[in-house]
Design a protein that fits this description.
Elements: E1 2-7, E2 11-15, H1 35-44, E3 53-57, E4 62-65, E5 69-75, E6 80-82, E7 85-87, E8 93-95, E9 100-103, E10 111-116, E11 147-149, E12 171-175, H2 186-191, E13 195-197, E14 205-209, E15 224-225, E16 230-232, E17 240-242, E18 249-250, E19 254-258, H3 264-268, E20 274-275, E21 277-279
Parallel strand pairs: 12-21
Antiparallel strand pairs: 1-4, 1-11, 2-3, 3-10, 4-9, 5-8, 5-10, 6-7, 6-9, 12-19, 13-14, 13-20, 14-17, 15-18, 16-17, 16-19
Amino acid sequence: MTLEVHDLGASVLVQDRGRRGWAHLGVPRSGALDAPAAALANRLVGNDEDAACLEVLLGGLGLSSDADIWTAVTGAPCRVEVDGRPREFGAAVRLRAGSTLRLGRPEAGLRSYVAVAGGIAVDAVLGSRSTDTLGRLGPAPVGLGDPLPVGRASGAPAAADTPRPPLPGPLRLFEGPRADRVAGDALDLLCRTSYTVSPDSDRIGLRLLGDPLPVERREELPSEGMVLGAVQVPPDGRPVVLLADHPPTGGYPVVAVVAEEDLWQCAQLRPGETVTFTSASRR
């Protein structure tokens, strides 16, 4: 079974849960930025949660299948159509052979996820089908006219058994290993500052605009291992939350780390939107 891509928006990437365990070789985890949304889409069509799906930036995707197949769209809410007729968002939708599924521009958020029964069966690289935009590892970004192979369906479609995570709120923070590089209490300063999302944000990092943190420039730090959600502070003092395609090492101080359960919000924050933090012990 094969999908054919007729229309593209800003970006369409193949993503699963990522390639874990390769950071010691300089390979980022990658994987779906909004992991709960991707997992829900897979459950809706009867897939294992690690099946590969499509991460669609700002809608605009149009695709068809050469055989009947179950599909589901989750993540950033958008209009879902099959042959021009509205279909339900966040539910299993039957796509008949030759029919075209289309995604509109999201009402809010950035990234929607399209799962198909059997998963996107491109070749795995280091155990994952995820596209790594930093290291150029895994499948290339989906292009117009690309045929996408589909695996064999292994389960039946399901109702939405698990709701979305709680409504967006402040990102919870744990203290980072270099918090002492900030003149004052790093967590307190971060939690008292309101930031906005920079247009330069991407799958590598959520870059924030606002009052710079007073980072003390002592001796230069050696390159250190980075983790998903690390809040790194470059020389301009404006924090960057490292996301799925982040480099495995870096030389700027990590003053905090975002709780993993809150990272899905970073996938859906648009440039110009407000970001606030709270201590993980206060929420």
